[in-house]
TrEMBL record:
It comes from Streptomyces spongiae. SUPFAM superfamilies: Terpenoid synthases (SSF48576). InterPro entries: Amorph_synthase (IPR048138), Isoprenoid_synthase_dom_sf (IPR008949). Pfam families: Terpene_syn_C_2. It comes from the Bacteria. This is Sesquiterpene cyclase.
């Protein structure tokens, strides 16, 4: 891991804010959800990912991390036990993000409030990018549900494409931008190298936790995991598959570093801060995954 460990000085305040926000919308009324949040530590992940971020934006990041963990777990449960209920659940989220439709569930109400927080803190362009990326994350959960029902093994490329969406990392990139002094100019935001850096950041950030959750997800019959995809593709043991996944992660991080070094002279100070935020997600997910209780049972999987 080339990026050193850092944490945000506002972490404890963000943790308290997350707990209050989740209670406000009734998301931790279920003891199982409350236990999941305690084991996941969303404010810690936000702190490690965004060590230099001001407290107000960090709170939105922490709230969104908590929301996505609750939403993702709920979508997985609904898709497995009551498949017919999954589409209305996901459509509610898309309607809130696309058309400001009124919510009809506690999760929907929390998402609507999160959308409000983003619009109040971000520029209209940043808020629109946040909503677009968040809709793509919701679409990814539907693709994942369809993939889980297929009787044939998923190809490595298909698994990677779905994982890129369900990672839910790219919705945070506009918040990285919002933390900068200025909104990025279109030519900088859409620079081909910057767009490639965004993709590399999201992939590396989510593939790292896949290493630590592989044992648990294998036992649960999950498919959308980089290490498990390598195991299926190469018909090898899980430790060998994890090593193959680590090799891909390392190559992704090296490409990120090389491209960033090349494009940095062309970027404004805000552009540099934006890409630093992407790098923060790689570093943060690494250090968080190594210690978070959520993955404690996967300790037998070799570390990267």
């Amino acid at each position: 891991m080339p990026f050193p460990f850092q944490s945000n000085r506002h972490e404890s305040e963000a943790a308290a804010g997350v707990a209050t926000w989740l209670r406000r919308w009734g998301l931790t009324d279920d003891p199982a959800v409350a236990a999941m949040i305690a084991a996941t530590r969303p404010a810690e992940l936000a702190s490690y990912n965004s060590p230099a971020m001001d407290g107000d934006v960090l709170q939105i990041v922490a709230n969104q991390i908590a929301y996505q963990f609750v939403f993702d777990d709920r979508a997985e449960e609904v898709g497995r036990r009551w498949p017919g209920r999954l589409l209305p659940m996901l459509c509610e989220s898309v309607g809130i993000l696309l058309d400001d439709q009124p919510p009809n569930s506690a999760l929907g109400a929390a998402l609507a409030d999160l959308h409000r927080q983003v619009r109040e803190r971000c520029t209209p362009g940043q808020a629109a990018r946040w909503a677009w990326n968040s809709r793509e994350y919701v679409h990814g959960l539907m693709y994942e549900a369809v993939a889980q029902t297929q009787p044939f093994p998923l190809r490595l490329g298909v698994c990677g494409s779905i994982r890129s969406l369900t990672a839910g990392v790219e919705p945070f990139h506009p918040l990285c931008e919002a933390a900068q002094p200025c909104e990025l100019a279109p030519e900088e935001l859409h620079h081909p190298v910057v767009r490639r850096l965004a993709r590399l950041s999201a992939d590396a950030a989510v593939w790292i936790p896949d290493l630590y959750s592989a044992v648990k997800e294998q036992q649960a019959g999950e498919l959308i995991n980089l290490a498990l995809a390598y195991q299926r593709a190469h018909r090898c043991s899980l430790p060998v598959a994890v090593k193959l996944a680590i090799r891909r992660i390392n190559n992704t991080i090296r490409e990120f570093e090389e491209l960033y070094d090349g494009v940095r002279p062309e970027l404004s100070p805000s552009g540099i801060g934006y890409v630093d935020g992407m790098a923060g997600w790689i570093r943060g997910c690494y250090h968080w995954s190594r210690t978070v209780p959520r993955y404690a049972e996967a300790g037998a999987v070799p570390a990267p």
